[in-house]
Structure prediction request, 829 residues.
Amino acid sequence: MTPGTRATPPGGDPGQEARAGGRGGDLRQSSDAFRGRAGGNRPGVPSRGTSPDAPAGPAAPGGRPAPAGRRTPAGRPAHLLHRLLPPDRRAPDGGSTTAHDLAVRHRLLLALSALLTLSLFLSYEGVHGDANPLRTSSAPAVLSLDTALYALGQAQRDAGATAPTSDFQKQISVAAQSLAAAAGDDVGGPAGRQALQTVAGLITVYAVKVQQAQLQPADSVLREAYLSYATSVLTDEGSGIQARLKALQGQQRAAVHRQTSFGPLLWLGWTTTLLLALALGAALLETQLFLRRRFRRRYNRGLLAAGALLAAGLAATLLFTVWTHQGMADTRALLDRPLTGRLITDAGQHTASYLAHTGFRASAAVWILIGGILLMALAETGLRQHIDDYRFRTR
Amino acid sequence: MSAPQGGPATPAAAPRARRVRTLTVVASCLVLLAAAVVFAVRALGQEPTVTLLANWTGTDERNFRESVIEPFERKYHIHVDYQGSSAESQVLGADVEAGTPPDVVVLTGPGELADYARQGQLKPLDDLVPRAGFGASWTTPLDGHVYWFPLKADLKSIVWYPAGTSERQRAEAAGRPGRWCVGMGSGATSGWPGTDWIEDILLQQYGPGTYQRWARGELPWTSKEVRSAWTTWGRLVGAGGDRELVRRALKTPYQDASKPVTGNPRGCTLEHQASFIRNQESWKRADGRYEPSARRIPGARASDAWEVSGDLVALLHDTPEARTLIRHLASAGAQRAWNAEESGFSVSPGAQPAPSDAGAAWHRSLAATLLDDRAVHCFDASDAMPPSVRDAFAEAAIEFLAHPDHLNALLTSLDTLSRTQGLTWVPSVCDRAP
Prediction:
């Protein structure tokens, strides 16, 4: 082999370095090699010499060394990763592949980190992005419409009174205020707003007709007539107040279902996220083991920190998502049936408690992006020094 | 010589590195593409919308949606947010006051539209509606501008009866209040069937000239002519008479008034109602026929005078989508489609079906009467009156039916209301009046 043509650092492969060091050979080792010895290979602990570049071990057919994973303590994850990646191949001239191995792992870690960040962000947003509209709009709107329907039912009960009653007026006020609240919750967008205005106009007509009836003598046909007009304004199939409110409520309940459902896209997103997280975890572990073999470093702080960040971030986002989704599912179960009277107030309180802190958890989405950048930075930091040593060293 | 970089250590490593790089780029592109697709689908889902408020509900609403709205949405990719309500006036009033009126409105009353036009709420339609498309009485200019045009028209001076009812039977039935099918109920606008009766009686007894003076607020409610119309109606339908009959007339929704026609024995025989009522199931089953109301109204002297009504389209919010919808509604195609549904008639000459087109005889005959140049067509007077007078008129009709002895008080009250300053009266309601 001609000196200067090998694609290995001076001193050769760290595995070889270890052997050379053991023999008191070439001292032109790379700084990594020195650090490897100093930090990872404690004095008195013999090198295991398990590098794929090392001549030891059964050779694969064609003279290629067997995959290191089969013989490392890392065992299965490393083996799986080796199956995912093309096996190391020695340079045709028999030189080291360390620089290439480092580059592959570097790119893999960065790509996996980027994909995981994107996938986690989209999946997280898919669940938490709906929590805010559910808490501030859809759920209150359903309850407002329930309140309006209940109040109008009570008003109709009071409409038969012989004289105008304060109870009737109160129920009409409650219904009108509930509609205003529903409009404030932006029920159904512009179409919903128009529908609510129509209902508000009809409630006014209803109240006027009832008052006209109550001003007539108790047994007069006019009283009956005005009450029948009022009742038709309230109950007409399709065009009455109740039918319109129920239609709006149906739309809102459908919106609640949409917002709280964990559909196929979300399943796909979270499955992809978890697979990517597993792959990244395995890649981090394999890289850690690879560095240990090649550079005699027991631990790479950057990679360890990246692993810890991955585990902690994933656990936190999963926990947040489970909590939020549970709250949303409970809200849907609560709002899925028509509510009346006191149950509406209770439902309002329960909904508020189910959806408490969902806003905070939803706002945590930005930390996924920050965490992803940090993860990539840690992976980069962990490998950069080794890569630079191989890139710029001349021989 | 510097050492080669980590990647191309071997010839086989280069394609491998490229493969990894390619995979990364492809994966990223796929993610971006997916995001772009999601975004594009959402963006496309938000098609422009135009809001439309009208008074059609039930069958009329369904017919309108199917024959007019859905083709428009398919052709122009503009979503029409339709709201139909009998309380249309109240809803529109509230919307306008709140500053959020619908883009387009279809109202029955030119009086109400004239009021909104004077308030500056309506946008002129001069460049949107073909000038030769509709008769002058249908697109009454106001201050030199056209603010509305008819989408649907109906003939009101008619009496319906079941097929097979002889002339003698009809004449006999007309003299017995219990044989008239009457229904005053119509939710927020209850009472209007009574106003139609009174208007038509006035038109048939005293002619278009008197009718128009009254509709313009020039003939007092307490005048002999108007009072005669009220009392004639009271006698025909038995106002203040049999309590059960009055209760039935007051409480029955107008669309259900003809239900007894199909009973056995028949509960009623004649119905004074506009042409659209023929679409009710009971008149379909009874194979309803019609005759001019002048034949059944005592003292009718007018010749070929017809009370008509129309659902008039106006523009409140001038957006490109709303203008597109206005053009579509004024087009012969949309008017013809609506005409074909038999929920109403078009008075656009270009929208009439060919004589050879199949269609019910009654439908063709009514359409011909609506367009007959020799006949006098007078717009529904209450619809042409200011909204406050119109509503009080309907309320008065309800009260009169139960208490005809209150007539003086009711007419005096209406006169007082009509003299209120600031009301907008339509200048003309008949296409030919002496």
User: Anything to note?
Assistant: Chain B has two domains: 49-154+309-372, 156-304+381-418. The longest helix of chain B spans residues 13-45. Residues 160 and 429 of chain B are 25 Å apart (CA to CA). The mean pLDDT of chain B is 85.
